[in-house]
């Protein structure tokens, strides 16, 4: 039961932090495509850095699968938003949180779909 | 005995810490899965014995592992178990037991580390009594293309760090070894699975 709260919280926070960091690092003089590329690299670094402590505490695959998708996507989106002139960090944080929640929901739905017995030859 | 899998023996000191999240997460599904264990039990790849607390009490278990360091760290849990566990250093691919010696065989995340998984399952088949069951709680490569890509990417890291492969097709390996899968249950996505075979 506790993981129903922990899992979305961990993924949402990870995505928000990744998006905000990415948007802060990417210079807004860059074009959106370059921002997305640098954001992707930042997302990948965040994935590696966050993966180790989070999987140790909360479990391997249940963290790894959504975290990979969340950090890569939020890194790219944060990088793209970082190149825009009229977007605040609060808006970037909200976008990161929203994207993370959407990804987490997809992964949780997919788990629900897979869960249970797939073969019983008794 | 073949060489120890690269990295596996080396992480023995930190193994409990590294696997603590999985242990907490999988306690209930493992306890449910292991409740049917009976008779003389072979526990393949005991590691530091994190699953012992999920076993029903009063079993007579022979526990093997390829790593002496892992077995050393399992000692506390072995002593605490309300039953009999006899730990032995042995490779799953060449078991030193007579044919048809065990009623139940347990593996937990073992066939991601064993060098030749099909040979390993063939050995399990050899030592399993007629009517006995093999209970395998293992992670496998997902058939979902997106998850499969992630696992193949992470496999590059985990193989180097701990010798753990994330791209194994354990269901197919069980069949290739001449065993029949009685049931296959998804625990997380189609990645973490509980197989019962004979």
Write up this protein.
The complex is a heterodimer of chains A (122) and B (198). By secondary structure, chain A is mainly α. Chain A has helices spanning 2-25, 32-58, 60-82, 89-114, and one strand at residues 116-120. Chain A has one domain (2-108). In chain A, 82% of the residues lie in helices and 4% in strands. In chain A, helix 1 runs parallel beside helix 3 and helix 2 (32-58) runs antiparallel to helix 3 (60-82). The mean pLDDT of chain A is 93. Chain B has 198 residues and is an alpha/beta fold. Chain B is 34% helix and 25% strand. Chain B has a seven-stranded mixed β-sheet, sandwiched between helices. In chain B, strand 6 (181-188) and strand 7 (192-197) form a beta hairpin. The chains are: A mainly alpha (122), B alpha/beta (198). Chain A binds chain B through residues 3, 48, 55-65, 68-69, 107, 110-111, 114-122, and chain B through 17-18, 20-22, 24-26, 139, 144, 146-147, 150, 153-154, 157, 180-192.
Number of strands of chain B: 7
The average pLDDT value of chain A, as a whole number, equals 93
Low-confidence stretches of chain B: none
Largest sheet of chain A: none
Q: What is the count of helical runs of chain B?
A: 7
Query: What amount of the residues of chain A lies in strands?
Result: under 5%
Helix content percent band of chain A: over 70%
Number of helices of chain A: 4
Give the largest interface pair and sizes.
A-B, 27 and 29 residues
Secondary structure layout:
The complex is a heterodimer of chains A (122) and B (198).
Chain A: H1 2-25, H2 32-58, H3 60-82, H4 89-114, E1 116-120
Chain B: H1 15-18, H2 20-25, H3 27-34, E1 40-44, E2 60-65, H4 68-80, E3 84-89, E4 102-108, H5 117-127, E5 128-139, H6 145-162, H7 170-176, E6 181-188, E7 192-197
Parallel strand pairs in B: 1-2, 1-4, 2-3, 4-5
Antiparallel strand pairs in B: 5-7, 6-7
């Amino acid at each position: 039961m506790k993981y129903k709260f922990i899992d979305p919280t961990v993924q949402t926070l990870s995505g928000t932090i990744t998006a905000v960091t990415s948007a802060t690092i990417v210079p807004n003089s860059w074009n959106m495509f370059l921002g997305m590329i640098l954001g992707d690299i930042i997302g990948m670094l965040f994935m590696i850095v966050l993966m180790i402590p989070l999987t140790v505490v909360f479990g391997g695959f249940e963290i790894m699968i959504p975290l990979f998708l969340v950090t890569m996507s939020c890194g790219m989106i944060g990088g793209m938003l970082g190149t825009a002139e009229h977007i605040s960090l609060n808006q970037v944080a909200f976008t990161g949180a929203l994207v993370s929640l959407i990804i987490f929901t997809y992964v949780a739905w997919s788990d629900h779909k897979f869960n249970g017995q797939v073969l019983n030859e008794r | 005995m073949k060489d120890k899998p690269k990295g596996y023996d080396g992480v023995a000191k930190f193994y409990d810490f590294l696997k603590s999240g999985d242990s907490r997460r999988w306690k209930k599904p493992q306890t449910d899965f292991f409740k049917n264990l009976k008779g003389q039990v072979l526990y393949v790849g005991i590691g530091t014995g994190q699953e012992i607390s999920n076993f029903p009490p009063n079993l007579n278990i022979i526990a093997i592992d390829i790593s002496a360091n892992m077995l050393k760290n399992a000692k506390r849990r072995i002593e605490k178990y309300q039953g009999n566990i006899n730990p032995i250093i042995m490779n799953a691919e060449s078991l030193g037991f007579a044919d048809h010696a065990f009623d139940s065989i347990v593996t937990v995340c073992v066939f991601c580390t064993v060098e030749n998984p099909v040979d390993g399952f063939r050995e399990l088949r050899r030592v399993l009594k007629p009517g006995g069951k093999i209970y395998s709680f293992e992670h496998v490569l997902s058939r979902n293309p997106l998850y499969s890509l992630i696992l193949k990417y992470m496999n590059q890291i985990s193989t180097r760090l701990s010798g753990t492969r994330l791209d194994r097709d354990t269901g197919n390996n069980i069949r290739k070894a001449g065993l029949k899968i009685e049931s296959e249950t998804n625990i997380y996505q189609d990645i973490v699975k509980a197989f019962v075979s004979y």
